[in-house]
Design a protein that fits this description.
about 325 residues; mainly alpha; binds heme C
Length: about 325
Amino acid sequence: MLPVQKFAALGAFIGLFLAGSVAAADNPPADTAAQKALAKDAVCTTCHNESWRVPILSLYQTKHGNRADPKAPNCQSCHGQSTGHQQDPAGVHPEVVFGVKSKNVSSAEDRNGTCLGCHKTGLRMHWSGSEHESRDVSCSNCHTVHIANDPVLSKATQPEVCYACHKTQRAQTHRISTHPILAGKMACSDCHNPHGSTGPKLLVKNSVNETCYTCHAEKRGPFLWEHSPVVDDCTNCHTPHGSTNAPLLKARVPWLCQECHSGDHGAAINSGANLLNGNATTINGMLPPANQSPRTQTNARACLNCHVLIHGSNHPAGAKFQR
Ligand code: HEC
Ligand code: HEC
Ligand code: HEC
Ligand code: HEC
Ligand code: HEC
Ligand code: HEC
Ligand code: HEC
Ligand code: HEC
Ligand code: HEC
Ligand code: HEC
């Protein structure tokens, strides 16, 4: 159905609904309650009907518009009684105006207070004082209530809502190596709770690692031989949103490793480990001699060829993560 037809059909449906309340006195009580709730909306929907400049009545296709749910808001639960506005629409605006582009938009506090009246608990437990709250981001910056499917609630369309303000992350998720966000299989809210959290950076868990372990449980261990930067923070080596170095690495191997291990192999060599074939990037902190073949130098850089279990090992002889 075209949107226009949809609203026309809806208008007819509401009409029937209201007519029903007059005609049938023997309706079950639940219906009567729903009809009463719907009739309350009529003080607004007489003017804000299916021909309003933007869709309004599509609210009835959402949970907020479920008039059989006594907890669902009517027009005035969100916008206020707005008596003055009903009499003089051009002169007096409603008590709560959510439209972020309207010149009459209410303060973030008033807008958020309205929604929090019914939604203070659950995911919103840490809203107060959160990064978004303290920067005057409001519920209606992310949520759209007058359309059938709020884009921020579905994995495929949510990132676009966030990118409106977070352009850096938009660019990052377009890189070669990413989480499957563009593919619509994952959303920002798999790792972040945009309403506030007890962890850093609005993460869903108390730390970066706890967040990653929700899906990459095998990286938690326990390991007989732990690689300490892994236990410390996955972002020592990985970037969550996207990278030009697969798999989501902050830098390419060997440079990634050499940020922390410069010249260590020199020690390995000097301690008798059989690496004298030239399979070393540095010897006592120096670059390998120029007379080594390019091939051996290249091999040496492929740290992961030998140190295969970089996240930790459970092999008794895996102290250097080789098995
Ligand atoms: C008599 C017709 C009429 C009634 C009744 C009416 N409105 Fe309006 N409303 C208007 C008109 C016209 C405008 C546009 C005013 C303008 O742009 O100057 C408007 C604008 C609005 C806006 C946008 C305000 C803004 O500044 O962006 C909201 C929200 C709104 N109405 C909600 C309601 C609600 C809620 C009710 C019921 C309590 C209601 N209206 C009842 C005619 C009406
Ligand atoms: C859950 C709270 C809520 C309820 C219930 C609600 N609204 Fe809204 N309304 C909003 C928000 C938020 C916006 C901003 C745009 C959006 O999110 O769709 C808005 C925007 C509007 C606008 C401005 C659209 C424009 O022209 O720019 C009008 C008019 C309006 N609502 C009328 C109504 C009417 C009439 C009802 C009852 C049928 C109603 N609203 C019920 C929250 C609500
Ligand atoms: C009068 C109470 C009330 C107010 C005010 C209210 N809501 Fe709701 N909201 C509800 C109820 C009831 C539901 C349905 C809950 C359910 O069935 O799980 C709901 C559901 C939702 C959902 C989930 C929708 C879905 O499809 O799962 C979102 C998002 C939401 N509300 C956002 C808001 C925002 C944003 C505001 C302010 C603009 C707001 N609500 C104002 C009562 C309210
Ligand atoms: C920065 C964007 C953003 C802001 C701001 C925001 N939300 Fe949400 N909201 C989301 C996302 C994303 C989800 C989906 C969460 C999920 O699936 O885990 C969601 C889900 C919800 C839900 C449905 C899930 C549930 O908890 O039942 C409700 C209700 C809700 N938000 C209410 C609010 C209210 C009220 C506010 C303002 C105090 C608000 N939101 C502010 C992004 C936001
Ligand atoms: C796989 C988990 C994951 C996903 C999915 C994810 N993030 Fe993040 N995000 C993180 C982690 C971990 C951090 C903190 C470490 C960092 O900044 O690298 C972070 C940090 C951030 C920051 C703060 C950056 C800063 O420099 O302080 C923003 C903003 C952000 N993410 C937005 C988003 C948006 C928008 C999306 C969806 C497109 C998203 N994130 C998806 C894990 C994730
Ligand atoms: C209306 C703009 C706006 C929207 C939309 C928005 N944010 Fe933000 N976000 C901000 C602002 C402002 C900050 C404060 C820090 C900054 O300036 O980047 C912030 C901060 C963050 C942070 C970092 C918190 C920290 O501790 O530094 C994360 C993570 C984040 N947002 C995730 C999201 C996600 C996920 C979404 C979509 C569901 C989203 N944001 C939508 C404006 C927005
Ligand atoms: C909600 C689940 C989820 C969370 C949370 C999560 N990931 Fe992932 N991760 C995935 C999925 C799905 C893939 C893609 C797997 C595939 O394509 O086979 C993936 C892939 C990866 C890859 C490999 C990428 C590639 O190109 O092969 C790395 C590295 C990674 N994640 C690191 C992290 C880190 C670090 C964190 C914590 C900041 C994290 N993940 C949090 C689901 C998650
Ligand atoms: C010391 C650097 C480093 C740290 C810290 C690190 N990783 Fe990795 N990770 C790597 C490297 C290097 C690869 C590529 C391995 C390969 O190609 O054989 C990788 C690959 C991955 C992969 C994809 C391949 C696979 O093994 O499944 C995932 C998922 C992953 N890491 C998750 C994590 C998580 C979760 C954490 C934090 C608990 C973490 N990593 C911490 C270096 C690190
Ligand atoms: C953020 C810093 C950091 C990065 C990046 C890093 N490591 Fe480590 N690595 C450490 C620390 C710290 C230890 C523990 C050293 C100790 O116990 O003396 C360690 C231990 C090791 C060990 C065992 C050393 C021993 O003496 O037991 C090996 C092998 C190793 N790393 C290889 C790598 C490789 C290969 C990479 C790149 C894929 C890498 N590391 C990236 C910090 C890092
Ligand atoms: C040809 C296989 C091989 C390659 C390639 C390799 N290593 Fe090693 N590495 C070893 C062996 C074998 C040891 C252990 C020596 C021992 O047990 O004493 C070792 C030991 C280490 C140690 C422990 C420190 C020490 O002196 O004992 C670190 C750190 C390390 N390697 C990092 C790296 C980095 C970083 C790269 C890439 C630039 C790399 N390795 C490439 C085989 C290799």
